[in-house]
């Protein structure tokens, strides 16, 4: 079988506050939208901005990060994959489709005053600049059980050099 790639990279702003819920199995899910903009010339030679809206879904720890730090207007860097779901509409019976970005990695680019956490505590900035970057990757290490990956902590004493 030939190798294939399904990878999305987005840099944009959150359109509205994320919706947080849990599945019947207890998995936390965050749904939110991200706007990206592109500038193109129209037939008359005038620049036109075009905004594209993306539906994003985050699970488990990344959904917790979204819940705690992301709100309308937050600037985010996202890495993920495209997934399209389909279902039958309950009312009309018609086949419905929704294309979403499943978030694998999330970086918060807004400063606290710009929308990622407000005054509710949260992560602390290492530098005193006007913007912060915090990155969260929800993928567990290859071959490691999920419980171990969630509990493993490495301190400076664990590093052999």
Task: Annotate the secondary structure layout.
Blueprint: E1 8-14, E2 19-22, E3 28-41, E4 47-59, H1 60-69, E5 75-88, E6 95-108, E7 134-137, H2 146-151
Parallel strand pairs: 4-6
Antiparallel strand pairs: 1-3, 1-5, 2-3, 3-4, 5-6, 6-7
Structure explained in plain terms:
By secondary structure, this protein is mostly beta strands. The chain has one domain: OB fold (Dihydrolipoamide Acetyltransferase, E2P) (Beta Barrel). The chain is 10% helix and 43% strand. It has helices at residues 60-69, 146-151, and strands at residues 8-14, 19-22, 28-41, 47-59, 75-88, 95-108, 134-137. It has a five-stranded mixed beta barrel. The longest helix is centred in the middle third of the chain and has 10 residues, at 60-69. The protein is globular and about 55 Å long.
Structure characteristics:
2 helices, mainly beta, globular, five-stranded mixed beta barrel, OB fold (Dihydrolipoamide Acetyltransferase, E2P), 161 residues
- What would you give as the CATH superfamily? Nucleic acid-binding proteins
Overall geometry comes to globular
CATH overall fold name: OB fold (Dihydrolipoamide Acetyltransferase, E2P)
Unreliable stretches (pLDDT < 50, length at least 5) are 115-133, 140-153
Succession of helices and strands: EEEEHEEEH
Rg computed from alpha carbons, rounded to a whole number of angstroms: 19 Å
Short summary:
This protein is mainly β. It has helices at residues 60-69, 146-151; strands at residues 8-14, 19-22, 28-41, 47-59, 75-88, 95-108, 134-137.
